[in-house]
Design goal:
Low-confidence stretches: 1-5
Number of helices: 9
Strand content: 15-25%
Radius of gyration: 18 Å
Shape: globular
Order of helices and strands: EHHEEEHEEHEHEHEHEHEHE
Structural class: alpha+beta
């Protein structure tokens, strides 16, 4: 490995008590293998190459993990990227039967440009407990710490939710920090939040990292609002539920063809999903290894 290649930051593990120690160790090895594999391309500008290296390393490691895993949330279809595909079987076939949510490299552009926030992530839940959002690639998300429970509502305006959360946290609204993906579709959300004094933290990519921050009290990010990837949304839900935070989601197709496909697949686009509906179990394991 070249001497200028950055080294890995510590891996975060939440819910280790829910699964056998050998399986937890195998999942940690898988995220660390994915993160390590793409390090030589960090800062290279080659986001597809970095993603390919991460995917191959994670697939290889998960193939040796002592469980019967089925990928419910994979990455790649939305961006036509290399992926661990939905329905793919992982593991040795012995041990717990699990739904698996994976993103070998969440924040491919961040890694390619050596910007903070790229991570390799895996979440496990008992088989049949993760919501499968196939045919819908985007989701409106509202995420916070436990302070948002019974307070926030994804159907309310951004300004109203900001005011509610500020009251719940007992802080002035001009001290509230809300993470928003820096995308053209969020121009009105950003303007609305800034219009009531909220400090907006714009992130180019990294749905999962910013979700973890929002669910963690004292992180400096009080909430996440806006539309991001649905696969990342389910992974984030696993992390948020593990951390005891708040989350709601609603399917948000971005084009007419995406809307038609979602309706044809039987999705109710007005339905608000609670955290318990996005992942219907407390027996979760969430593992994240930072790349940048």
């Amino acid at each position: 490995m070249p001497s200028h290649t950055p080294s890995l930051a510590p891996t975060t593990v939440v819910g280790a008590h829910n699964y056998p120690a050998d399986l937890v160790a195998a999942i940690v090895r898988a995220t660390e293998a994915a993160a390590s594999a793409c390090l030589p391309l960090v800062g290279s500008g080659d986001k597809s190459g970095a993603d390919e290296l991460a995917v191959a390393a994670m697939r290889d490691a998960l193939g040796r993990a002592p469980f019967a895993g089925t990928v419910v949330i994979g990455e790649g279809e939305k961006d036509e990227a290399p992926m661990l595909a939905n329905g793919e079987r992982l593991g040795t076939g012995t041990g717990p039967a699990c739904d698996v949510a994976v993103d070998p490299l969440d924040g491919t552009r961040l890694a390619a440009e050596n910007l903070p926030g790229a991570v390799a992530v895996i979440a496990l839940a008992p088989r049949g407990t993760m919501f499968d959002p196939r045919d819908v690639f985007y989701m409106q998300k509202l995420i916070s710490s436990a302070a948002g429970i019974g307070v926030l509502d994804v159907g309310a305006s951004a300004a109203e939710n900001a005011a509610r959360l500020a009251r719940a946290l007992a802080k002035p609204i001009d001290e509230l920090v809300v993470g928003v993906l820096d995308k053209p579709r969020h121009a009105s959300v950003v303007a609305e939040l800034r219009g009531v004094g909220v400090r907006v933290h714009l992130v180019g990519e990294g749905d999962v990292s910013i979700a973890i921050a929002a669910a963690t009290p004292g992180s400096g990010i009080d909430a996440v609002m806006g539309v991001g990837g649905t696969p990342e949304g389910i992974i984030a839900a696993c992390a948020v539920r593990s951390l005891g935070g708040f989350m709601q989601g609603r399917m948000a197709p971005q084009t007419n063809s995406q809307r038609d496909a979602a309706v044809a697949a039987g999705h109710d686009l007005d339905r608000v999903f609670t955290l318990n509906e996005l992942v219907a179990s407390d027996r979760l394991l969430f593992v994240s290894t930072p790349v940048t």
